[in-house]
Amino acid sequence: MKRIMALAFGGLTLAGAALAQEGDPETGSKIANMCRTCHGMNGYAQIPIAPHIGGESEIYLAAQLLAFKSGARAHEMMTVVAAGLSDTQIADVAAWYAAQTAVANLTADPELAPMACAGCHGADGIAAIPDAPNLAGETNIYIETQLKAFRDGKRESEMMAGIAAELTNEEMRELANWFAAIELEIIPPE
């Protein structure tokens, strides 16, 4: 089912490779121990420059870890961490964080959500498609930094590069503020 969804939504080739095997959340929780300093054990980020990853789809998480591992996406810490993970470990840690449930509390009118973002990331910041990340409750610093990285070619995505290229710095800040204002709760699995 996950592979079908990845194909149906034009999932990344890297994501399909990671999901060729089913991840084990219990084993993934042990691997997540090394992630907790930045991302927290349940995926609620502990530092403002790290994203919340609890409740993300396995497809998205595995694709990002594989991108860091291959060098397709660069980050001084994540590149090193991902390089040390096997494909099985990536599937397991992705399964662990995907087993969490992300719940957004949108207090603003959803009709005011940024239309360029809502189709994939949801008006409430909970992703509507499996290969897009949740944006609910992310810090505006993190979101704005990622938008600039897409615009400047430091982070690759055909769709996001095109969207970010059209945005001014002020518009990026407004989008980032919209999603940062959403309250996020991450609920662990039972």
Any overview of this molecule?
The protein has a single domain, classed as Cytochrome Bc1 Complex, Chain D, domain 2. 49% of the residues lie in helices and 5% in strands. The chain has 11 helices and 2 strands; from the N terminus they run αααααααβααααβ. Strands 1-2 form a two-stranded antiparallel sheet. The chain starts with a helix and ends with a strand. Residues 1-18 have low confidence and may be disordered.
List the defining traits of the structure above.
two-stranded antiparallel ribbon; mainly alpha; Cytochrome Bc1 Complex, Chain D, domain 2; about 50% helix; about 190 residues
Write the layout of secondary structure elements.
Blueprint: H1 2-8, H2 13-18, H3 25-31, H4 36-39, H5 58-70, H6 78-83, H7 87-98, E1 101-105, H8 115-121, H9 140-151, H10 158-165, H11 169-180, E2 183-187
- Label the CATH architecture: Orthogonal Bundle
The backbone outline, from C-alpha atoms, is globular
CATH level 1 name = Mainly Alpha
Q: Termini separation (Å)?
A: 23 Å
User: Which fold name corresponds to the CATH topology?
Assistant: Cytochrome Bc1 Complex, Chain D, domain 2
Low-confidence stretches: 1-18
Main sheet overview:
2 strands, antiparallel
Give the strand content: 5-15%
Number of helices: 11
Order of strands, main sheet, comes to 1-2
Provide the residue-averaged pLDDT. Answer: 90
